[in-house]
Write a structure and sequence with these properties.
Helix content is 45%, strand content 16%. It is built from 13 helices and 10 strands. Strand 7, helix 10 and strand 8 form a beta-alpha-beta unit. The protein is elongated. The relative contact order is 0.11.
Length: 354
């Protein structure tokens, strides 16, 4: 629609400009014939309308950009007028020397403008090196938990403490120095592999960059590229596959070396073989790191210390994966559905002890 309006506006200006030139010529020619106007002056009379119309040729494009700017301004005002999901403390508390233990007790949280808690009564404890997987169907509260841990959303009730300090008393940026996020939609910039990695740590050395890529299983692929780490990835990582974009985001998160790493649906929207391979690699890469893995896939979760099952915002089951998979409950039912959708036999899940 905007392109059509611009084309019509440009054509109209060209038509009016041409008619004006023709009219000027019709008026001036008799004057030249009568000797009242010299031939050179005729050229000036004819060309003057063309010069005058140059000042308005950009108006259709300006009108198009005005509409774009107006819509952009509306989106900006929507953000500015939206309720603030997090209230920063007027005088932030001093950051703890050690973020552990990171504890959540009786946590309830809801989004601004809603009347129902998206997460309620959640308990969680992370010690150094402990890995927890949070699973559950869409809308069960998994991402809400991640937002609270990163302090992108305030708790409505309960407590969230980092190293014994109430997280709400800390500056949000301080919390995110302790808790980092590797999201499913992590942005990949239109730059090189090297510069995308260095967003996490600008002073990272070449060996550190290569080690992060190796942990994310991208180093062999990067070394095979003609320009290596200086290869441009395109806008939003357009030159990378979906799996490669996720692995690059993971390498960036590993390079940042957060004390606590939150992985939010890292294998979402990938085909099952790619998703399971990525999950296996990231679990291997995060061995020894304090990690919260948020996922709807159960493959590979034997490697974590504890599995927490969420449903409708509440924790409905928790414990080691092998124990939960062997007893009747939400996780075993999820596992049966996952195997059935993948065309695998479900006898192992259904026939386990109850």
């Amino acid at each position: 629609m905007a392109a059509t309006a611009t084309a019509l506006g440009g054509g109209l200006i060209a038509l009016v400009s041409g008619l004006t030139v023709a009219a000027a010529a019709l008026v001036a020619l008799p004057a030249v014939a009568d000797g009242r106007l010299a031939g050179v002056e005729l050229a000036v009379v004819v060309l003057t309308p063309l010069a005058a119309f140059e000042a308005v040729t950009g108006l259709p494009l300006a009108a198009q950009y005005r509409q774009r700017v107006r819509r952009s301004a509306e989106r900006v005002y929507e953000v500015l007028d939206a309720p603030v999901p997090v209230r920063e403390p007027e005088t932030p508390a001093a950051a703890p020397d050690d973020p552990f233990p990171l504890e959540v007790r009786g946590l309830a949280a809801r989004y601004p403008g809603t009347v129902r808690d998206a997460l309620t009564g959640a308990d969680l404890r992370l010690d150094a090196g402990r890995r927890i997987a949070v699973v559950g169907p869409s809308g069960s509260g998994k991402t809400t938990l991640a937002l609270v841990l990163l302090r992108f959303l305030d708790a409505r009730a309960g407590s969230y403490r980092i190293g014994g300090v109430d997280a709400s008393a800390l500056d949000g940026d301080t919390v995110r120095e302790f808790v980092g996020l590797c999201a499913q939609d992590a942005h990949i910039f239109d730059s090189s592999l090297r510069e995308n990695l260095r967003l996490a740590r600008p002073g990272a050395t070449e060996p550190e960059l290569r080690r992060a890529l190796a942990e994310a299983r991208l180093l062999d692929w990067a070394d095979a590229l003609p320009e290596g780490l200086d290869t441009l990835v395109g806008e939003h990582g357009a030159r990378l596959s979906g799996g490669q974009r996720r692995r690059l985001a993971l390498a960036r998160a590993l390079l940042a070396d957060f004390p606590v790493l939150v992985l939010d649906e890292p294998a979402e929207h990938l085909d099952l073989p790619t998703a399971d391979a990525l999950t296996a690699d990231l679990l291997e890469a995060t061995a020894g790191r304090t990690t919260v893995l948020i996922t709807h896939r159960l493959a590979g979760l034997e490697a974590v210390d504890e599995v927490v099952v969420l449903d409708e915002g509440a924790i409905v089951q928790r414990g080691p994966y092998d124990v939960l998979a062997s007893v009747d409950g939400p996780l075993r039912r999820m596992l049966a559905r996952e195997r059935e959708s993948a065309g695998e036999p479900v006898v192992a899940a259904a026939g386990a002890r109850s």
